[in-house]
Amino acid sequence: MTKNHTNFFFAFRSLSNKNFRNLWFGQVLSAIGMHSDMVARAWLVWTLTGSSTSVGSVLLVRALPMLILGLFGGVAADRFNKKMLLMTIQFWSAFMHLLMFLILFYGDIQMWHIYLISFGLGASMSMNQPTRTAIIPSLVNSKNIANALSLNSIAINSTRFLGPALVSILIYSTDIWSAYICAFIAYLLVLFFTSRINLSKSIIKEQKGNPVKQLFEGFKYIKDNKLLLALFFLGLAPLSIGFAHQTLLPQLVEQKFGEGVKLLGLIQSTGAIGGILGGFYIATRKRLSKKGILMLVVSSTYAASLFGFGLSSMKWTVFIFIIIIASSQTIFRSSNSLTIIETSPEKLRGRMLSFTLLDNALSPVFGLMVGLAADKWGVDIGYYLLATGCFIIIFLVLLIYPKIKNIS
């Protein structure tokens, strides 16, 4: 084949690897749990408080462990048996969702309960993603790493396509507690599939040494590598500032369009179509080329679509913009992660990938800020501020490190 893309089935080639297949099934199920919590938590906080600031504050509390523990999560991914680390993380996530279910079903839910459990789930997320991504090069052939990364994105977005809509209907038909029992069951199944991954002895060999020293070893490597600095900084646009638009969705749905949780779930599910399209764009390529230009283009497209959200006065336009946003984010994340993996030595991959969590962790900070602005001046202003912030980041990256355009 001479073309850089091929047929539909070629996109799933990494799933022929049994170990990656088990990891991927775990990714699908953990995404179900994540999306169940995402819809339920946002709507629960909104119904309790009626404030986008409160929705943003819960996201901020969830992100705090990523800021505190995220980098050590990368150290742990490099240092310990990745399979056993994943098992521990999934057990903790299952416990957190079970606890939330019990409080909702038997107790009187308070905001401090939501803050506490959000912090606990943030702790597991800070360890999960660096470990889950860092293990991929140990499971698949090097030429299929981009394919495996994109399949993970497809897994997340496929569940996001139906998940939020079904969870919203489930909440509407029963109550919010039902979303958390679904998430608990999903994480039990994640544990099952993770237990079936077999790693060779050379892969599970644990690193010795001082973890703090190993963390600073990662900092030093980044300090000496301007390309990595540019990649992390550019990630602020779609992964931090842009993604904060999730904070504004409940307010957009209720105040701009006069609807409720069903429309919220439908918008989030529709976004998954874009995520799946973006995932297939990466997965069907034999080789991902011109990654620098690609990341800059999709980041700019993301920012422009945020302006579109603010300008939209008809519901159908929101669905178009959410598809564009989701596809742009998926393409960016896969391209960004692949470049980091290709640039980093194997012993540092977990730490390098954990630095991308700082982008994710900062998103709720921007969400809280934009939530305050939206509560005061309206939801449209919130979207304009996010779009402007994204364009500023893209401009600064091009100004400081113009060579990013040359990443092949």
Care to describe what's here?
- The protein is an all-alpha fold and 408 residues long.
- It is globular and about 50 Å long.
- The protein is built from 17 helices and no strands.
- It has one domain (15-197, 208-406): MFS general substrate transporter like domains (Growth Hormone, Chain: A, Up-down Bundle), CATH 1.20.1250.
Radius of gyration computed on alpha carbons: 20 Å
Low-confidence segments, ≥5 residues, pLDDT <50? none
Q: Helical element count?
A: 17
CATH homologous superfamily caption:
MFS general substrate transporter like domains
**Total count of strands:** 0
| Overall CATH class | Mainly Alpha
Order of helices and strands: HHHHHHHHHHHHHHHHH
Topology of this protein?
Layout lengths: L17 H32 L2 H28 L2 H25 L4 H24 L1 H4 L5 H29 L3 H19 L5 H4 L6 H13 L2 H9 L1 H6 L7 H8 L4 H23 L7 H21 L3 H29 L5 H29 L1 H22 L8
Helix pairs in contact: 1-2, 1-6, 1-7, 2-4, 2-9, 2-16, 3-4, 3-7, 4-16, 6-13, 6-15, 13-15, 14-15, 14-17, 16-17
